[in-house]
Amino acid sequence: MRRRYGIAATLTTALLVIAAAAIATATGCRGGASHEAAAADSAASHEKKLNLYIWSAYMPQDVLDDFTKQTGIAVHFDLYDSNESVLEKLQSGVADYDLVVPSDYMVRILIHLSLIQPLLKDRLRGLENLDPRFLNKGFDPSNRFSLPYVWGTTGYGYSRERVKGTPDSWAPLFDPANKGQILMLDDMRECFSAALKSLGESINTRDAAILRKAADLLKKQKPLVKTYNSSDFENILAAGDVTYAHGYNGQIAKVIAANPGRFGYVVPKEGATIWVDSVCVPAQARHTDAIYAFLNFILDPRVDARIINAISYASGNGAALPFIKPEIVHDPAIYAPEEALVRCEFVEDIGDATELMDEFWTEIKAQ
Amino acid sequence: MRGRGGFLRAHTWLIYLFLYAPIAILVVFSFNKATQTAVWQGFTTEWYGSLVHNDLILTSVRNSLIVGVAATVVATVFGTLVALALGRYAFRGEGLTRNLLYLPIIIPEVVIGAALVTFFGVVGLRLSLVTVILAHVVFSVSYVAIVVRARLSGFDRSLEEAALDLGARPLQTFWRVTLPLILPGIVSGTLLVFTVSIDDYVITSFVAGVGATTLPLQIYSMLKVGVTPEVNAVSTLLLLLTVVLIVIAQRLQQPPPEGVRD
Amino acid sequence: MTIQNPKPKIQNRISPAYPLVLPTWIVLGVFFLLPLTILLVISFAQRGTYGSLKPIEDFAQYVRSGKILANYARSLHPIYLQIFWRSVWMAVVTTVLCLALSYPAAYYIAVVAPARRRNFLLGLAVVPFWTSFLIRTYAWMFLLRTEGLINRTLLSAGLISQPLELLYNNFAVLIGLVYGEIPFMILPLYASLEKLDLSLLEASADLGAPRSSTFRRVTVPLTMPGIVAGIILVFVPSLGQFIVSDLLGGARTILAGNLIQNQFAVARNKPFGSAVAFELTAAVLTLLFVYTVYTRKKGQDVLL
Predict the structure, then answer these.
(1) Cα–Cα distance between A30 and A10 in angstroms, integer?
(2) Which chain B residue has the Cα nearest residue C146?
């Protein structure tokens, strides 16, 4: 009986050995000579390839094609839909991305964990084009590591057909009269931000008592919420499942534009989250030439405007304004007016208080 | 048996109805003029046309198929061998092997994904399509083993022994007696793991590297943009392809060997 | 009477089973056990400020003070136990429904339908799952939402006056879970049913047993391996599910899968997430162990 299976088993073991050998060669010897590694690095730095890791909907294909046409550099991009994916991939140390576009608080974390490298400012042209409102922020003073790409706010969208007048505060989202008509982002920080702001507090407070008050408010709100959703809340609003949809302005602005007159967007007067997504270079990125060629490409106001016109978010590049479509620049849902931004705050990492907030969030969701 | 057959047939077709209801919606919406998936705004075939130019989706389909086939083949072979071992022999380490096979099913995908990406980082294996295939093999072997093992229970050895007595060589016996008898189990197992692999999102999202985006990853990433009906179109086409394949396989199938129940 | 071949006793020489299990052991050992061991070690650590690990200054003190088990202790708080309980309940209901729906269908395909049609019918049952999970789920949302197809049809047919709440609740989650798990139940059931020896059923009928008796005392025991395989393949992964409850349930409940997912993602607390996952694993393994011992005692075939 042994011989019967012997051949099959031998074949498969042989397969395995070959596979193992293949993996071993693919991995390469980690302890290889350092000057070989350096030579490989410098070769890679001149390679005409670029690997982008970016939010979906943040980069139109034709801009990339143009870049390739101009410079001969092939661009490959992969998409993600959460900052934590970026963290996970960069932490592993084995993902080959050259550029990532994390949000503000994540930039801070990446800097702290040494997962992104300082920018070589002398290789960059057009830094003066950037909007000073988004420079020198707490998460990256003097922008050593990041360049603002797009920014936005997190308020809420609402159905004009079902709501009388123009709402201007967080109150409707916590109002029992609106039971079953509310959507909240499935995002711990964003929900707490809404609650904290409506309580008149800072969204970055680490005070346990204040956080508990916000948690209680969110617990009271939960029976009123029809659904929590961070990915396509704008479609749920458009489909009529809810009247009020907590969400990021860009996606809601799209629904507003696609359904003229039927929806509106509010940055509540108590304040909201303002966020900025920035371009950063992972510490292990190797295609240096391609990276700086690309950065310079998008720092150009005209190119940036083309991007913005396609993706409908507000740009971190101030000089691009004249080239952006007027309906975008004058859309308060995209380019929030100054008065609305006064009480808005950037999300900052709250350190150890994250665990406390997570426990509250679990309690809220487990209700 | 006839009355029962009627009820069973009705029940089965109801189940098919249940299974295909969302599929019908999916197919219908591939002709939707609107870009939002929730609202119907008229009939169009433009998405099938634009699909041809959508390199992102086409590449991800290709990646999914490569991963699916590779992982399924490896998992089916390994899983069948293990099932044979567990079903036939008592050996030291039997219980351990059993538990080893349960683990990939018990442990949540998030944990497997996180463990794998950490591990790859530690050993320096760069993320790519290969890491995806490895990950898929890891969670697939158990499924095949369990399904084939279920098939092996109560397996009648006397058929094999008869063949050997009649002078057949052991390998011959395996190919022409054992294998055909456990084939339905193997086929079930293969179908199962291919299904799992082609639609896996969580584990793949952890271990995919540059250029290793599979179809589920691509679709998920399109959520924020708005999942255009192109996704419905590609799903419909894949559906058509698999149905055609199954029909062809059906036609090519040999008639069942004598002695097997019809 | 079933024909059983008792397995030979453990021999002293190298069992022919070893080359068969070797490939699997190598692949799973390297690419599964090793990575999990890393996570297991991590589960005894604490979350650092930015989400990586807090460095441990004094290891001996860390062990003595009991902090090494902090994550495991935390997971026993009532709030988490409530989550586990709800997940188990959800998984049980899903499994039962799946079994009830799949068994007759698998029986029909394996026993009643003509042999040449079998693979085709089986394939048909599986093909829907080769489409994208996300799109299928969205299709369900289209069917179930307040202004969705089902409600609109029922309203215009005058069968109801108010739209039914079919989405963003447990009902929708169950539909989603059952729907997604059907192939995992049908396929093992089919594998077991297909080799059902009909002559045994006929013999039972000839001996005067009513159909229900034959089913209960002949068919079910004979197909028990398939049933158990299906139950395991459906129940266990259902515990770790989180996407269905997020989409169809409106993310309003938190199941074990969501909890673990949150720890690995937003909370950036891998140690706690790993601890919860390993506890879940230990619990299920214990259940399986108990089941194995029980069936061994009764002389029945075990799962694997």
Answers:
(1) 30
(2) B38
CA–CA gap between residue A319 and residue A315 (Å, rounded):
9
Mean pLDDT value across residues C230-257: 89
Token match 């599964």: residue? Answer: C32
- C-alpha span between A293 and A291 (Å, rounded): 5
> Is A240–C265 a contact, with Cβ atoms under 8 angstroms apart?
no
Which residues on chain A are in Cβ contact (under 8 Å) with C7?
none
Give yes or no for a contact between C148 and B25, defined as CB atoms under 8 angstroms apart: no
- CA B179 to chain A, closest CA, distance in angstroms equals 12
Distance CA C211, CA C53 (A): 62
Give the model's confidence band at B261: pLDDT under 50 very low, under 70 low, under 90 confident, else very high.
Answer: very low
Token pair listed for A317: 């590049």
Work out the average pLDDT over A69-82: 89
CB contact set of C239 (below 8 Å; sequence gap of 6+): B108, C87, C88, C91, C255, C256, C257, C280, C284
Query: How does residue C25 score in pLDDT terms, banded at 50, 70 and 90?
Result: very high
Chain A CB contacts of B121 below 8 Å: 91-94
- Top pLDDT among C7 and C182 is at C182
Q: Which amino acid is at C147?
A: E
Q: For residue C150, give the amino acid letter.
A: I
| B221 with A9: Cβ contact below 8 A | no
CB nearest C261 (choices: B8, B110, B119): B110
Structure tokens at A3: 């011989």
A38 φ/ψ sector (left φ>0, alpha ψ -120 to 50, else beta): alpha
* pLDDT on residue A78: 87
What would the DSSP string read from start to end of A200-250? T--TT---HHHHHHHHHHHHHHGGGEEEE-SSSHHHHHHTTS-SEEEEEHH
User: What would the two tokens of residue A6 be?
Assistant: 């012997």
pLDDT surpasses 80 at C2: no
With cut-offs at 50, 70 and 90, classify the pLDDT of residue A4.
Answer: very low
Does the pLDDT of residue B246 top 80, yes or no? no
Comparing B127-131, B254-258, C163-167, the range with the smallest average pLDDT is B254-258
Q: Which residues of C touch A363 (CB under 8 A)?
A: 79
Q: In chain C, which residues have their Cβ closer than 8 Å to the Cβ of A187?
A: 266
CB B249 within 8 A of CB C137: no
Q: Which residue in A358, A360, A363 has the most chain C C-beta atoms within 10 A of its own C-beta, making it the best mutation to test that interface?
A: A358
Residue type, B154: G
What's chain B's average pLDDT? 84
Work out the minimum CA distance from A58 to partner chain B, whole angstroms: 9
| Rounded-to-integer distance, Cα B165 and Cα A316, Å | 81
Band of pLDDT at residue B39, cut at 50, 70 and 90? low
Contact C11/A at CB under 8 A? no
Higher pLDDT pick, A340 / C57:
A340
Residues of B within 8 A of A27 (CB-CB) are 123-126
**In this structure, what is the dihedral angle of CA atoms A230, A235, A237, A238, given to the nearest 10 degrees?**
170
Task: Give the list of residues 6+ apart from residue B16 with CB closer than 8 angstroms, or none.
Answer: C124, C125
DSSP A154-183: EEEEEETTTS-S---SSGGGG-GGGTT-EE
Q: The complex's ipTM?
A: 0.84
CB-based contact (8 Å) between B41 and chain C? no
The shortest C-alpha distance from C68 to chain B (Å) reads 20
Q: Which residues in chain B are contacts of A88 at CB distance < 8 A?
A: 114, 117, 206
Q: Which residues lie closer than 8 Å to B71 by C-beta, 6 or more apart?
A: B133, B136, B137, B140, B193, B197
How far, CA to CA in Å, does C80 sit from each of A49, A367, B138, C89, C211?
47, 11, 29, 14, 46
d(CA A60, CA A298): 12
**A235 touches B at CB < 8 Å:** yes
